[in-house]
Amino acid sequence: MKAFHTFDATLRLNLLILFTAGLLFWSSTATFLPTLPLYIEEVGGSKQEIGIVMGGFAIGLLLFRPMLGRLADQHGRKLLLLIGTIVATTAPFGYLAFKAIPLLMLVRIFHGISIAAFTTGYSALVADLAPVATRGEIISYMSLTAPIGLAIGPALGGYLESATGYPFLFLLTAELAFIGLLGALQVNNPPVQKQQASKTSSNFWQILSSPRVRIPTLVMLLVGIGVGAVHTFVPLYIKSTGAELNAGLFYTIAAISSFSLRIFVGKASDRLGRGLFITFGIIAYLVASLLLWFANSTNAFIIAALAEGCGGGTMISMITTMMADRSLPQERGRIFAICIAGFDLGIAIAAPILGFMAQQMGYRSMFAYTSVLMLVALMIFLTLSNKNLTHSLKFALGRGQDVYSLNNSH
């Protein structure tokens, strides 16, 4: 935490308010992870319908993220924080009001806008505020809001669902997001940099086709499919194996594991480069998928949750940091939006496609497929992450610089 003490009081306070708003936002969102699949099952949804409704979240993300990235670059990051928290405050009332699967799907798509807006605005604002020399450290610390929220939310959700039922649970998630909105209103947004805007590629396809963005986006897509499988089907998979484990606890363990790693990884990446930690993160996701493929006991699920958390704690925050290294402030919102949209697309297609697979062959076979996808993601990153095979391997193993970084400071 040394980096924070070198900042002036205004910047420290700004980061603290931003962190608190992020924590409340993620706690609200994560409450639905173990509870919503069970709620959809209770109102009569099949395995595939559960997948479709849960995947609706990512459809909302996908449809709106590129447009929101543009908004962040043109009108500042704070606007996106406000949109995200307002949607997260209103969406839970939709789950309460509707029971029909198509209507729940629409509510879930609407709810997805909250993450698209909040995470794009939050990531871009943190990258803007963080000094280059300590960027990895600051982004890692500030990205702790997700794993802490993912530790609090599912445990809280699982407890409230069994103790008080769904109505109180949904009202509480709305309340958490509303307090997050009050925090977001206090955030001080630095002025939007408009100079050099003409020199930066503004077209969606132009940005996506550039090698500095294309490969990280593809890796995020493949990993997103694996993460989508975990987020949607683990509660039902645990139930089907008869393992004595509260599904909320699986996500809490993963979040604690993610949290523990992020504290160290960011600072280390400022010295050793981002590539090594992205490689480690993809391997951790691969191990988690393999463990879930063979899981049949409580301990196996707990170890899989630890591996899943190691993946989340390194890969996501390190790719975010790498994209900050590779972008100018005035294009950062769009670049983050496009790269993270790869992850969103993975989650979106995971739920319906893997839901169909689970219906036909069972959950175990489904995780065999996600293991193959994680292996493909690893091979792509090792061989294509930089301008040629040699540079890629060196960068991915922490032995060379990122050729595409705009500030080769590590």
- What is the overall shape? globular
Please tell me the CATH architecture by its name: Up-down Bundle
CATH fold topology: Growth Hormone, Chain: A
Write down the oligomeric state.
Answer: single chain
Order of helices and strands: HHHHHHHHHHHHHHHHH
- The end-to-end span amounts to 20 Å
Write down the CATH class: Mainly Alpha
Tally of alpha and pi helices: 17
- Rg over CA atoms, rounded to whole Å, is 20 Å
Q: Would you report the number of β strands? A: 0
What does this protein look like?
It is a single chain. This protein has 410 residues and is mainly α. The protein is 82% helix and 0% strand. It is built from 17 helices and no strands. The longest helix is centred in the C-terminal third of the chain and has 33 residues, at 329-361. The chain is globular, with a radius of gyration of 20 Å. Residues 195-201 have low confidence and may be disordered.
Topology:
Layout: H1 2-5, H2 9-30, H3 32-42, H4 47-75, H5 78-97, H6 101-129, H7 135-142, H8 145-163, H9 166-186, H10 204-209, H11 211-241, H12 247-272, H13 275-294, H14 298-325, H15 329-361, H16 363-384, H17 389-396
How would you concisely characterize the structure shown here?
The protein is an all-alpha fold.
Write out key terms for the chains shown.
410 residues, mainly alpha, Growth Hormone, Chain: A, 82% helix
